[in-house]
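Methods — Computational structure assignment.
A single polypeptide chain was analysed. Its primary sequence is given first, followed by the predicted tertiary structure written as structure tokens.
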Amino acid sequence: MSASLDNIVDVSVSVSNPTTIQSSFNLGCIIGPSTALASTRAKVYRASNFETQMVTDGFKTTDPEYIAASLYFSQSEPSSQLVVGYHNNTGSTETPAAALAAVHAVNSNFWAFCFVEDLEDTEIQAVAAAVEASTQKMLFIYQTDDANCLVDSQTNILKTLMDANYQRSVGFYASDTYQTSAALVGLISGFNTMEDNSAYDIAYKTLVGITPVNITDGQLASLQSYNGNAYMQFGTQYSFVYTGISANGYHVDEIYLIDVASYLIQQRTVAGLTSLRKVPQTEDGLATVVSFVSDACNQLNGIGLIASGIWNGSPVKNLNTGDAISDGFYVEADSIASQSAEDRQERVSPPIYVCLLSSGALEHIVIRVYVNR
């Protein structure tokens, strides 16, 4: 009998459970020009002590980052944390897009973000392009006070990004410099808890600390023609966000669904794989993986991002147009028997297809009243 190699090299392998990894969708980011974080580039602040901590770090209470942080943490359902980043725009050729990359290199955990300075249209466009090309899922909130956004058939940054079909940039017409964007990042981040029944629509939400713009119906129609948004006054009593869509017309909650679905399916699947000694390359093993995916979809249903309904998309495997989908999702995989010899040798699973039915939101109501005298 030979001696064990453990006498020479004792190898112990541990894999942490990915289910302990927390989502960062409720962590927002603001990036500004104040030099307090010049040496560190980015830092996380907490709602409980950001006022004192930011002053300790060298921010003045009049700095845009401090004011923006106050707005961020003041929204109706505030996030508990915020990343503050630094844009070196003093005597430097660093662009906002480069600043975003530098901040991201220090902390890549945030989702929604904005700049708290007045950016040129070309700078906004460059940041939007960088976000669209990034492998990290982000949502860029920006604003403009360009009056061309309120007139039909004009050149403006909203139209530029709409024509580019950008999905991850959400533009607002606003008369302030950065405050509306900061409040919106706070609003969105606070809502992104991923808890049961936490799905939301940012339309018709109030921004604490923000003065609404007062625009006419005609100006609103022009703004909407560019997929633009505003925090605006309606009638004499109401002020709220309208409507909350990206440059290519996706609603913020739809983008959130896309990103959360990707995150949860990935995390639940990896967590499942690491929790088992082995997932055999059999039909039963594939069914186990499908169950991991279904668990993620059940959480999406619990959040309220998907719901039961009728599939109106193109047919996918055995799901046909017009079929009812229970709980808002349908999962089906190709069979193990259909695998190629190469895929089997490489231990690649057959494709798994996931169809999700967004719960959507009612934003435009039609009511007809009939009176009989």
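Note: Residues 252-275 form the longest helix (24 residues).
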